[in-house]
Structures are given as structure tokens and as C-alpha cells.
């Protein structure tokens, strides 16, 4: 005891782990206003959850608030940041742009703390994808040192909060080169609609303030005056009860998952639900320690609400790849269903006396015909299936998914292709037959439909 530990670095450490005011003032002017505001409680709980990663061996990751400007996204980041620090010219919150220049330094400095990254719009999609990926992975690039040996790459473990007008996936797709966020990226950076649906932007309960605008301005000012103490107090209780952390968190998480994660949810969903569970646990622990001035259950309710909003925006509890596969094929048919599919049978256009009219299909990908049930079926030739309809996707996996949903007819041999007679082919050819359900049905199962048991 009484040992002084000095951290020696190459230069001055540019951190914002400063303190101002007191814990009581923070509770009075910042913390209590989160009550009834799911996004604020979630953001604050995330701040408390960061130091739980290590004792619970949880993985790094983050939440991204997505939504229109002036809805309170940056405010939420400032509020969460006030748990850890503030002050100086920039306060605690960093920007995506500043971070892209020195990601490893910034991330390393926030190890086991909260990192707030504002305004994803300031960096291009490719960069955002790389930053997000590295942040969540917890390791930087490995580089050669001056002597040519591989230098160990920087490592960190942290939780981050981010804001932007687009989701990470949309941001990555923004440059139009067909890049997509990997499902793994989407699991580690959980995208939450900033708008809480109460007509007040990110907020739901204004605590008597005359407008959401005034509420947001109060929060930003107050968080700029009272900061840093909550994390110190929380860390003290954690250190005093270090061995109890993992079992306590596990208890809260098990309870959260039992109530909020459907038993048949896919693995990606349960991983995200576990992240929300960890954050809920942190918020409840900060409440029990009388640091977050909330009633017990507040943090859990907020996490549960945000998880549901995430699921709602994501479109169900099935793997992201499956919804993506169905969406891609559906979009292709919507775009090209008439222009690039030659009509056959009684769908083929005829003139006044019943003679077929030349259809002039350029870049034909297949045919369309009336199905027995009266809808329209789309027949896609194998080459076009692979290179056009399923471009950028695993064509065989897409076929499997569609067949399982009844959007693709399978042959008696179980194969996803069927031998069919087609105009202008002498012999029957193999093709993929999409049922009319591809345009209408195949809505992903919704979260609301599930019974939790
Ligand atoms: N929910 C809201 N409704 C109306 N005005 C808001 C809301 N949230 C914030 N504002 C106003 O917008 C300004 C910017 O808030 P900020 O949190 O930076 O928004 P964002 O990051 O979503 O663009 C605030 O100072 C406030 O005047
Ligand atoms: Mg902003």
C-alpha cells in the first residue's frame, strides 16, 4: 500500500479523465435527467459497463446512435462521457475524424474506459468501416519497426458510443462500390435508432423542461460542469468487491437474456442481446452503489427498450445474411422484373389478332410466366443467377434460404434448379424458379410475434 505507480510514456498523455464538481452535483444536474429516457440511460450504463469487460472477459464493441441532426445524439455522448471526464477545449467526446488519424493512440488511451466518437459523417465509408472494425477487434495494425522486425500491434479493450446520420452499414455502402458491412461488424457495433419515437427526438421524458431543445441544452451545459466523479466512485466499489463482479454481472445478464432474448434467436442476435445485458447489469450495479440516481430496474428497462428498437430496425431475429439475401433478390426482381425477363405463355404480349409481339429484351436474365396459382414466376438462368441476381452474395446459400422460405421452387431431387422448356432453347434447361412470394411474402419474423419462454 502507499506505493506510487508512475506511467511513463513517450509524450504527454492527452487524456480527458478530469473531474469537476462533485458526485452529488452530477447526480442532481445530469444523472437524474436520464430517468425515463432509454437512450440516455443506455448511454450512461455503457459508460459504467466499460470497466466490466475485463473482469467478465467480455468483448469490445459499441453502440451507434443513428438519426437526423439536432435530435440529441451528440448530447447523449456528452452525457455519457461525463461519467469519465470532460473539460479542456474538447471535453471528453472525440470525433470520428480526429480519431481516424490516430486511432491506435486514442483507442489505447481509452482502454477499459468509454470512448465517445461523434459524427461518423466526417469520415468516408471505407474509413468508418475500418475504424469500427479495428475498434471492436481490439487490435491495431501490425507494423514493421525501424529495424524491420514486426512491432507488436497496439491492443485495447473498450466500449464505445458513436453518433451519425447513417448506420454503419449504410455508411460503408455510401461510396456506391458495393461494399457491405460484414455481419460480424454489425454485431459488434450495434445500431440504435436515435429517435425514441416519442416525438422528442432522442428523448422521451423532459422532466418539466419546456422543450426537447431546452432539455438538450441543459444536459450539455450541466455535463460540461459536472463530470468525472461517477466513474471514480464506481471503480472504487468494483475494486472493493472485485471477486463478486463476474458472478453479479452474470446474474443480471442471465435474467436479462431470459426476459429479452427469444430462445430461438440466431447467434448474432444473442450476442447483441448479451451486450445489452452487460450494459443493463452495469447500470443496475451503478444504481445499487448509489452512483446512478435511478430506481432499480431503470437500466434494465432502458436496455430492453433499445434492444427491441435495434431488432425492429434490423427486421427480425434471423441472421442478417438471410434478410440480406431475400432483400437483394427482391430488389433485383423489382428493378428488372419486366425489363430483363422475357414474358412467356399467356403473359407474352400479343397484337390485336393474337399474334405474339417481339419483346426485344436486352441483357435477358430469364423468363417470367403465370404460375398455377395465378401469380407471376420468374425463371432465372444459372449464369445470370450467380453473376447478376446474387452478385456479391453466396449464390448457393441464397438459393437455400429462398427455398426454405418457399420463394424458390425445388426439384423432386431437392435441387434448387428445375429443368424447364423455355422459348428459344431446343432442349429443357436448368433454371432457378422464383415464386411470386419473393415480392410479397418472406417478411422476416418480427420480434413482437415471438413468445418469450
Ligand atoms: N430532441 C431534440 N429536439 C429538439 N432540439 C434538439 C433535440 N436535441 C437537440 N436539440 C437541439 O439541437 C442542438 C444540437 O444537439 P445535438 O445533441 O448536438 O444534436 P445531434 O448530435 O443529434 O445533431 C442542441 O443544442 C439543441 O438545441
Ligand atoms: Mg451531433
Task: Furnish the topology, listing elements before pairings.
Elements: H1 23-29, H2 38-49, H3 53-56, E1 61-66, H4 73-81, E2 94-95, H5 96-101, H6 103-109, E3 114-118, H7 125-137, E4 143-144, E5 150-151, E6 159-164, H8 168-173, H9 183-188, E7 189-193, H10 212-223, H11 229-240, H12 242-260, H13 267-288, H14 298-314, H15 320-336, E8 341-343, E9 366-370, E10 376-380, H16 382-389, H17 395-404, E11 408-409, E12 417-420, E13 429-434
Parallel strand pairs: 1-6, 1-7, 2-3, 3-6, 8-9
Antiparallel strand pairs: 4-5, 9-10, 10-13, 11-13, 12-13
The structure holds adenosine-5'-diphosphate and magnesium ion (MG).
How would you sum up this structure, described in words?
By secondary structure, the protein is α/β, with parallel strands linked by helices. The protein has two domains: 23-314, Rossmann fold (3-Layer(aba) Sandwich); 320-439, no CATH class. It contains 17 helices and 13 strands. It has helices at 23-29, 38-49, 53-56, 73-81, 96-101, 103-109, 125-137, 168-173, 183-188, 212-223, 229-240, 242-260, 267-288, 298-314, 320-336, 382-389, 395-404; strands at residues 61-66, 94-95, 114-118, 143-144, 150-151, 159-164, 189-193, 341-343, 366-370, 376-380, 408-409, 417-420, 429-434. Strands 8, 9, 10, 11, 12 and 13 form a six-stranded mixed sheet that branches. α2 (38-49) crosses α13 and α13 packs antiparallel against α14.
Amino acid at each position: 500500500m502507499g506505493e506510487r505507480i508512475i506511467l511513463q510514456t513517450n509524450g504527454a498523455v492527452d487524456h480527458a479523465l478530469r473531474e469537476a464538481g462533485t458526485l452529488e452535483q452530477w447526480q442532481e444536474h445530469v444523472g437524474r435527467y436520464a430517468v425515463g429516457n432509454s437512450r440516455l440511460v443506455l448511454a450512461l450504463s455503457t459508460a459504467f459497463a466499460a470497466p466490466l469487460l475485463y473482469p467478465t472477459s467480455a468483448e469490445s464493441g459499441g453502440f451507434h446512435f443513428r438519426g437526423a441532426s439536432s435530435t440529441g445524439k451528440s448530447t447523449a455522448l456528452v452525457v455519457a462521457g461525463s461519467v469519465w471526464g470532460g473539460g479542456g477545449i474538447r471535453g471528453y467526446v472525440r470525433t470520428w475524424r480526429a480519431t481516424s488519424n490516430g486511432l491506435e493512440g486514442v483507442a489505447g488511451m481509452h482502454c477499459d474506459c468509454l470512448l465517445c466518437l461523434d459524427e461518423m459523417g466526417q469520415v468516408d465509408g471505407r474509413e468508418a468501416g475500418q475504424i469500427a472494425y479495428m475498434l471492436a477487434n481490439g487490435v491495431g495494425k501490425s507494423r514493421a519497426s525501424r529495424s524491420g522486425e514486426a512491432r507488436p500491434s497496439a491492443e485495447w479493450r473498450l466500449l464505445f458510443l458513436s453518433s451519425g446520420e447513417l448506420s454503419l452499414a449504410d455508411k460503408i455502402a455510401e461510396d456506391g462500390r458495393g461494399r457491405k458491412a460484414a455481419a460480424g461488424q454489425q454485431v459488434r457495433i450495434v445500431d440504435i435508432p436515435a429517435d425514441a419515437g416519442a416525438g422528442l427526438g432522442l428523448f422521451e421524458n423532459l422532466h418539466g423542461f419546456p422543450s426537447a431543445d431546452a432539455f438538450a441544452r441543459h444536459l450539455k451545459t450541466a455535463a460540461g460542469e459536472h463530470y468525472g466523479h461517477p466513474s471514480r466512485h464506481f471503480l472504487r466499489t468494483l475494486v472493493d468487491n472485485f471477486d463478486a463482479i463476474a458472478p453479479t454481472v452474470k446474474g443480471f445478464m442471465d435474467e436479462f437474456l431470459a426476459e429479452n432474448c427469444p430462445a430461438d434467436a440466431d447467434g448474432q442476435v444473442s450476442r447483441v442481446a448479451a451486450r445489452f445485458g452487460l450494459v443493463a447489469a452495469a447500470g443496475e450495479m451503478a444504481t445499487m452503489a448509489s452512483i446512478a440516481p435511478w430506481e432499480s430496474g431503470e437500466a434494465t428497462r432502458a436496455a430492453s427498450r433499445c434492444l427491441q428498437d435495434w431488432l425492429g430496425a434490423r427486421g427480425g431475429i434471423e441472421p442478417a445474411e438471410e434478410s440480406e439475401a431475400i432483400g437483394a433478390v427482391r430488389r433485383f426482381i423489382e428493378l428488372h422484373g419486366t425489363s430483363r425477363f422475357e414474358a412467356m405463355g399467356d403473359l407474352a404480349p400479343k397484337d390485336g389478332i393474337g399474334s405474339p409481339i417481339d419483346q426485344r429484351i436486352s441483357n435477358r436474365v430469364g423468363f417470367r410466366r403465370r404460375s398455377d396459382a395465378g401469380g407471376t414466376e420468374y425463371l432465372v438462368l444459372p449464369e445470370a443467377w450467380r453473376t447478376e441476381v446474387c452478385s456479391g452474395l453466396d449464390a448457393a446459400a441464397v438459393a437455400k434460404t429462398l427455398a426454405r422460405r418457399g420463394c424458390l421452387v425445388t426439384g423432386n431431387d431437392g435441387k434448387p434448379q428445375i429443368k424447364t422448356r423455355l422459348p428459344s432453347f431446343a432442349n429443357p434447361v436448368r433454371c432457378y424458379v422464383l415464386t411470386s412470394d419473393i415480392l410479397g411474402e418472406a417478411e422476416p419474423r418480427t420480434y413482437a410475434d415471438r413468445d418469450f419462454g
